Amino acid sequence: MATYFLAKVKLPDEHRKPVTDHIVMIHQSVQKYSEEFDRIYKRKNYSTPKNYLDFIQNYMKFLADKRDKCDSSVRRLEGGLTTLEAAAITCSELSEELTIKNVVIADKKVIVEKIIFDIQGKSEIAGKKQKDAAIKKADLSIQSAEITKAKGEAQEELKLAAPALAAAQLALT
After folding, report:
1. Which of 23, 49, 95, 107 could cross-link with 2 by S-S, CB 3.0 to 4.6 Å?
2. CB contact burial 108-138 (16+ within 10 A = b; e otherwise)
3. Is the pTM of this model over 0.70?
4. pLDDT, tens digit, 9 for 90 and up, residues 13-55
């Protein structure tokens, strides 16, 4: 009977005979243990052909449910595996882009460091020139004050010498 009903079930040939033998053995052991149950507990337990057919049907249903669960798990895990493969590809692409960008960044970093060095050098030069200019401005303001003083004195002397100059011009004429 088990062979007839299990013919519809997809099983590998090497498993078909052991499964049918196991179903028969279970049904026969139920009958054996029913006698022991009666002897120990004084209660009857009957195993009918209908029980045997129900056992075969339940086995087929259980097998179908487990296969569905396994198929569902396989699909879920394949989806996860596909996602992981896509993530690995994306990660490798991003890693390549990062390597390229790191080279560009290193080049630009060297350029920026040169520019910073130049700016610092020029800032030092500008600072020195600014100090020199401040010193020159102070010197020039001192000289300007001296020149203004000397100009004032020269104009005073010119005013004093102007009548003598005018007299000398008259004498020459």
Report:
1. 23
2. eeeeeeeeeeeeeeeeeeeeeeeeeeeeeee
3. no
4. 898 899 889 988 988 898 889 988 998 998 888 888 888 889 8
> Residue 5 is encoded by which pair of tokens?
């009903």
Contacts of 64 (CB under 8 A, 6+ apart): none
Q: Which residues contact 52 (CB under 8 A, 6 or more apart)?
A: 1, 27
Neighbours of 28 (CB within 10 A): 12
Q: Which tokens in the block code for residue 41? A: 């507990």
Closest Cα to residue 2, out of 70, 76, 51, 52?
52
The closest of 143, 162, 139, 141 to 151, measured between CA atoms, is 143
Q: Is 6 helix (H, G, I), strand (E, B) or coil?
A: helix
Q: What is the DSSP letter of 47?
A: -
Contact of 16 with 5, CB cutoff 8 Å: no
C-alpha 109/C-alpha 105 separation (Å) is: 6
